[in-house]
Amino acid sequence: MKPRVDTRALLGLSDPSDAIDWPRMRAAQLQAGRRTALLFFSAHVGAAALAALALAPLASPGILFCWMALVLGSSAWVTLRRLGWRDRHLLTATVAEIRRTAAEGIVMGLAWAILPLAFGATATARASLDIWAATTIVLIASGMTMAVLPLASLSFTALLGGACIATLVMAGAPFLAAAAAFLVLLVSFGSFTRARALVLLRANQMALAERDQTVSLLLREFEDAGSDWLWEIDAQRRVVRASPRLAASLGLEPGTLGGMPFLQLLAGPAWETGRFTAELHDLADKLKSREPFADVPIPIDIEGERRWWQMSASPKFDERGAFAGFRGVSSDVTEQRRATEQIHRMARFDTLTGLPNRLHINEALATALAEADKWGARCAFMMIDLDRFKAVNDTLGHPVGDRLLQRVARRLRGLVSDNEMIGRLGGDEFAVVVRDARDTARVEALAQSIIDTISRPYELDQHTLYIGASVGLALAPRDGRTAETLVRSADLALYRSKDKGGGVFHAYEPQLHVAAEERRVLEIALRAAVEQGQMQLAYQPVVNARTGGLLGFEALLRWTHPELGSVPPSKFIPLAEEARLIGAIGEWVLRTACHEAASWEMPARIAINVSSEQLHNPTFATLVAQALAASGLDPDRLELEVTESVFLREGTAAISVLEQILDLGVRLSLDDFGTGYSSLGYLAHTRFNAIKIDRSFVQNAARGTREAIAIIRAVVALAESLGMATTAEGVETEQEHEMVQALGCTRAQGYYFGRPLPVHEARMIVSRNGNETTRARA
Predict the structure, then answer these.
(1) 228-233 vs 690-693, strand pairing mode
(2) Helix 695-702 vs helix 706-722: angle between axes, to the nearest 10 degrees?
């Protein structure tokens, strides 16, 4: 939309604040007047000479000379004023400077008005024609040369035109006066219109210049601020122009790009060999299609380094609509691409070991399954669990454990080929995807190699560490057609390997799923067993080995399910420990047994088995104290039996918990002595009150096995020296009873003295043997 031109501002009579920058516009008017000053002077000199020639026969030389001097002097004054207007490089002018141009028009108008007023009425017909010709010439010439300064132009035209019109009216030539008036109006209108057109033109030029300057500034800032540059190519894909940054990015001089094939610049050294990247071929196709494109990634090799550019461009056309090439912008997105790749790697690789993580392993397994299904082949999946790794974490700390995992990962990485992918699932669990598992023997050999490699000792922080590995193996499609099913099968196989003591691999078998389902159903039932009153305690007598008198009972947990029937402890106790239910069950056993023992008529002891998990709970001693307080049972009558497994986790709170229990006055017994590791060493950790000799030693000793007899004698001697009682477990015959008596055991327990009894039968025995039990207590 064209800007509106204020007439008063155009004439220099006001200084409005509108869309036009009037200070700069006024400077443009004065500069235009400066450029036409010599033409203005030449027009006035020529017209004055013509008029002097016409008046020479009629006027005296003196009068004519004075007029000529006045006109030429005024013209010279005006010309010099315009030529001397301030500094040509100044960009603004004031309103007062425009107003002062009115004096130029008035001076020139008055000088020329003398001509028609003094000589118009008395001149001859020939002289009058020359005078009017000179006057017309000077009117038109001044209208042209003074139009850029409309206030001066209109002042001059009004004075000279008015003098001519008045002279013609007084001479009795109304038609000529009307013609002169029309000429004056025409010249005035033309002068004003030209002045307005100049303002509009100049305003548009200034707007365009300002826009170009803004665009140039933005482009310069755009290039200076980032790794982006502009380029332009012709229809033959040769570089027409390009930003200096483009040349700098390519390691070239800016002046060398013109006329070079654009694709050659991007291809670099590959241009000679013809081995172009797929992305460059894609760019060539887009340039060939002559359609706009955006964000096309292109790899660029610059001085041996791979960089990535992102390119966008639009086609350009000439005035006839013919294709003329492309204009585009490029960006160096190498760092962004590297960051994206790093994020992608972090999402798919384990940060500790650098191996593929669970997500990546699952993707690889899904791909392997799809390929196996497509070609009718087989793939495999292995799950690896480290044996004894938890002990390293507990004894030496997590930093050492992390470094050990890194060593394990390094060994595993050296075992696989392109056919396998090894990854870390989390914690101390790893996995292997075997893409082609048609050779089952080779897959099993890899599983065994993994176990052997991981089981070699590790030298770490001046420690020699020994761990092992258990592996579960599943083959597809035999053991599963989906990733989820195959992982489940491998997990069940791993569970079987761990069940066998670790250090072996086991392949999936269908019965494993049946066992797992049975275990799942049993776990669900076990969670509800305590709440629904399905669990009971049976009480097995513990007697004086010499006299056979009752000393107390061992509380044994029994579970009778309404549908599953009687579930043996060997089946549900490990499940309870694995499912983390042993804590709640153990607390129920403790409270129930203490409450029952407190109701007995004789002060018989009650022995309760405590699991390792319970003792590693720092609040267990508090639970014992609460159970004693709630039942009113004397602490000396409570004996807690612990196995050697409690000491396998060094540096834990178990020993501290045992000390707290002893401080309560509760007695401790070391159960299954001799079946674990370094049993004698455990006796130095805690002040035990009794040692229970495992039934396997009792049975072997009864058969005459010298080693078993020697062990029992050694244990009895050790116990006597430490002030401990010895309990022989599993005494089932009179011969075994006589044997443990002869070997010096102080207490005995087994079917010979009584099977585990229901609570009411145990109460009857306590009531019947009250007095005898009191006398027989050791």
Answers:
(1) unpaired
(2) 130
| Higher per-residue confidence, 393 vs 692 | 692
Query: Cis ω on the peptide bond leading into residue 477 (within 30° of 0)?
Result: yes
- Residue linked to tokens 């799942």: 520
> Residue 289 and residue 639: Cα distance in Å, rounded?
91
Residue 182 reports pLDDT greater than 50: yes
**Measured between alpha carbons, how far is residue 720 from residues 637, 691, 731, 739, 744 in Å?**
21, 10, 21, 18, 9
Does residue 724 have a pLDDT over 50? yes
Q: Per residue in 516-550, pLDDT tens? A: 777 788 888 888 887 787 889 999 999 999 988 89
For residue range 445-488, list pLDDT tens digits in order. Answer: 999 999 999 999 999 888 889 899 999 999 999 998 999 999 99
- What DSSP element (H or E) covers 425? strand 420-426
What is the amino acid identity at position 688?
F
Q: What is the pLDDT of residues 13-40, one digit of tens each?
A: 777 766 676 777 777 777 777 778 888 7
Place of tokens 């190699």: 449
Q: Give the whole-angstrom CA distance, residue 513 versus residue 418.
A: 31
**Residues 495 and 472 sit within 8 Å (Cβ to Cβ):** yes
- Spell out the residues 6+ positions from residue 602 whose beta carbon is closer than 8 angstroms to its own: 550, 766, 767, 769, 770, 771, 773, 774
CB 646 within 8 A of CB 612: yes
Which tokens go with 154?
């209109």
Which residue type is seen at 354? G
Tell me how far CA of residue 184 lies from CA of 187, 230, 678, in angstroms: 5, 56, 131
Specify the amino acid at residue 218.
L
Going 554 to 557 to 560 to 565, the CA torsion angle's sign is negative
Pairwise CA distance, residues 531 & 581, whole Å: 12
Token pair of 5, please? 């031109």
Which ranges constitute the DSSP H helices of 457-509? 483-499
The DSSP output letter for 757 is: B
Provide the terminal-to-terminal Cα distance of the chain, rounded to the nearest Å. Answer: 117
The CB-side HSE value for 599 (13 A sphere, CA atoms) comes to 11
| DSSP string for 205-239 | HHHHHHHHHHHHHHHHHHHHHSSEEEEEE-TTSBE
CB atoms within 10 A of CB 73: 12
Q: What is the per-residue pLDDT for 656?
A: 83
The per-residue pLDDT for 11 is: 75
**Gap between the Cα atoms of 409 and 412, Å rounded:** 5
Q: Are 539 and 756 in contact (CB under 8 A)?
A: yes
pLDDT at 102: 82
SS3 assignment, position 49: helix
Q: Which two tokens stand for residue 607?
A: 């022995």
- Burial class of 126 by CB neighbour count within 10 A (0 to 12, 13 to 18, 19+): exposed
Rounded to whole angstroms, the Cα distance separating 194 from 770 reads 136
Which phi-psi region, left, alpha or beta, contains residue 774 (left: φ > 0; alpha: ψ -120 to 50)? alpha
d(CA 656, CA 554): 25
Task: Give the span between the Cα atoms of 500 and 487, in whole angstroms.
Answer: 20
* Eight-class DSSP state of 4: P
What CA–CA distance (Å, rounded) separates 114 from 620? 129
pLDDT for residue 179 is more than 60: yes
**Residue spans of beta strands (DSSP E) within 530-658:** 535-544, 550-561, 565-567, 605-609, 638-642
CB 620 within 8 A of CB 584: no
- Helix (H) or strand (E) holding 464, with range, is strand 463-465
Q: Is the pLDDT of residue 552 over 90?
A: yes
- CA–CA separation, 241 and 720 (whole Å): 103
CB 426 within 8 A of CB 358: yes
- pLDDT bucket at 221, cuts 50 / 70 / 90: very low
CA–CA dist 436, 443 (Å, integer): 9
* Angstrom distance (rounded) from CA 552 to CA 689: 15
Task: Tell how many helices (H) and how many strands (E) occur in the chain.
Answer: 31, 21
